[in-house]
Amino acid sequence: MNLYQQLINQKIKTITPEELVSYSRDYGIPLTIEEAKKIIQIARTNKIDVFNPQERAKWVRELAKITSPQTAKQANELFLKFVNKK
Predict the structure, then answer these.
(1) Which of 1, 38, 61, 63 is the most buried (most CB within 10 A)?
(2) What does 6-72 look like in DSSP terms, one character per residue?
(3) What is the pLDDT of residues 7-34, one digit of tens each?
């Protein structure tokens, strides 16, 4: 795992609900504080490597359960933008 991947994965583990909602607004992804709390709880209790396509797909399915399929799709598109940067 390279440094960029480590930084992204570390940020996922340490982000606050308020930060997540702020980022979601910056990228036009609707998200409530309650949804952000649930997402963060899953991120902190499960090893999620957004750089691994299979793990990311599983994560997106979980997001769809918490939020909506459209929100999960938007989040996946955002993940793809980040993971394709090297």
Answers:
(1) 63
(2) HHHHHHHHH--HHHHHHHHHHTT----HHHHHHHHHHHHHS---TTSHHHHHHHHHHHHHHS-HHHH
(3) 887 888 899 999 999 999 999 999 999 9
